[in-house]
Structure formats: C-alpha cells, structure tokens
Amino acid sequence: MNWDMIQGKWKELKGKVQAKWGELTDDELDQIEGRREELVGRLQQRYGKTKEEAEREVDEWMKSL
C-alpha cells in the first residue's frame, strides 16, 4: 500500500494507527488526516523519537498493511 492509498483510507486506518501508537489521541489522528509528515512529527513529539526513527517506524507500519 502506498501513502496515497493510506490518505484515501485514513478513516478506516485510524484504528490501526492507534493500536500501533496508542498515545496518539483521536483529535491528533483527525488533525493528521493521513499526512505522512504530520504523523512523523506527532510521533517525534509524543514519543521523543528522532525524525529518522519516526520515519522508519511509519515506513515499517505502512509495509505491514
């Protein structure tokens, strides 16, 4: 699945995102709206990760879909 598909199915995928990164709130997920960079930024803020760590996690999650 590519990122364009994820954006298109964001409402369906929000539950999977929250299962993976449980500290993200529903409001944050609504604000992210499937934007990859926004998700990476929120993971950096919420979990104290580097940009590279957050990007790697997002890419691994995307490949698992």
UniProtKB/TrEMBL annotation:
Domain of life: Bacteria
Location of the CsbD-like domain: 4-56
Any Pfam family hit: CsbD
InterPro entries associated with the record: CsbD, UPF0337_stress_rsp, YjbJ, YjbJ_sf
Record family assignment: Belongs to the UPF0337 (CsbD) family.
Name assigned to this protein: Uncharacterized protein YjbJ (UPF0337 family)
Native source organism of the sequence: Albidovulum inexpectatum
